[in-house]
Amino acid sequence: MLILSIISLIVGIVCQILALTKLKLGRLETKGFLILVHVMYMLSAIFLIIGLSVYTNYWNSHALFFAINNIRFLGTTSYNYSFYLCWLIALPFMIFSIAYAVYATFMVKTK
After folding, report:
1. What is the pTM of this model?
2. Where are the domains of the chain?
3. Cβ(13)–Cβ(65) under 8 Å?
4. Which member of 84, 87, 88, 107 has the greatest number of CB atoms within 10 A?
5. pLDDT in tens, 36-85
6. How far apart are CA 47 and CA 81, in angstroms?
7. Could you give the CA distance from residue 1 to residue 52 in angstroms, rounded to a whole number?
């Protein structure tokens, strides 16, 4: 999921550069790129949240096994508060992205 998050973030950055240069690519113009940027940012945040949820759930469910068998691996602890910080940052960011995509669709005039 982290790889998907990084890929969607890179695509969002590329689309933002294309929107800045006002390049027309097929049917996508500046307005289309602006909407695509925020869709990619939302996907990146969603993939990051899913990845952190799976990672935290895996290590928390296996923590008892590692404690009983006294197995220590580097990185066997969960992300602790970073999981909640990710939610705290990603949810307002997704709300902002949805609001901006609606704004770019209905309010921005590109011509």
Report:
1. 0.64
2. 2-106
3. no
4. 87
5. 888 898 888 888 888 877 777 766 666 656 556 555 555 555 566 666 77
6. 18
7. 9
Q: What is the DSSP string of 26-53?
A: TTB-HHHHHHHHHHHHHHHHHHHHHHHH
Structure tokens at 43: 């996907």
Buried b (16+ CB within 10 A) or exposed e, 86-102: beeebeeebeebeebbe
CA-closest candidate to residue 101, choices 33, 47, 38, 57 = 38
Q: What is the pLDDT of residues 6-19, one digit of tens each?
A: 899 899 889 888 88
Tokens of 51: 């990845």
State how far the Cα of 59 lies from the Cα of 87, in Å rounded to an integer: 18
Q: How many CA atoms lie within 13 A of 76 on its CB side?
A: 12
Q: Which amino acid is at 71?
A: I
Query: Amino acid identity of 80?
Result: N
